[in-house]
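Justification of computing resources. Each target in the renewal requires a structure prediction run like the one illustrated here; the chain below, 133 residues long, is used simply to show the kind of job we budget for.
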Amino acid sequence: MSNFNTLEKEIKKTVLNYLLNKSELNKNVTVINELTIDSFSRRLDLAVLTNKKIMAYEIKSDADSLYRLSSQLEKYRQYFDKTIVVTTPKHLDNILNLVSDDIKVWEVIEQKITIKKEEKLRELRVKLIILIC
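Resulting structure tokens:
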């Protein structure tokens, strides 16, 4: 039996370690935990800001519901260049059926991330919207 906890905190740690191992995090990258956007009506689990793009990471752990996911993703698409949903096997099939083509899906099992769905690239655009407005 594993010690891996399928709750959000442990999944966030796994995502950050994955990004570090892929050399996607460095001194020029800003990571924001629990970023509030859209006049404080939405709270994103992780945001990663580079000099070229703003990425959203929405985590759905075993303890989460998918009730708000569609509306969350729709809002994230307005603010971020790329959105990635990170989930456990419990929610994977439902999320794969729910997300649009431009959303990427990762699965976390035992501190290991597997890409389950690639996004179709959309043109990266400069974000002029202030994230918290």
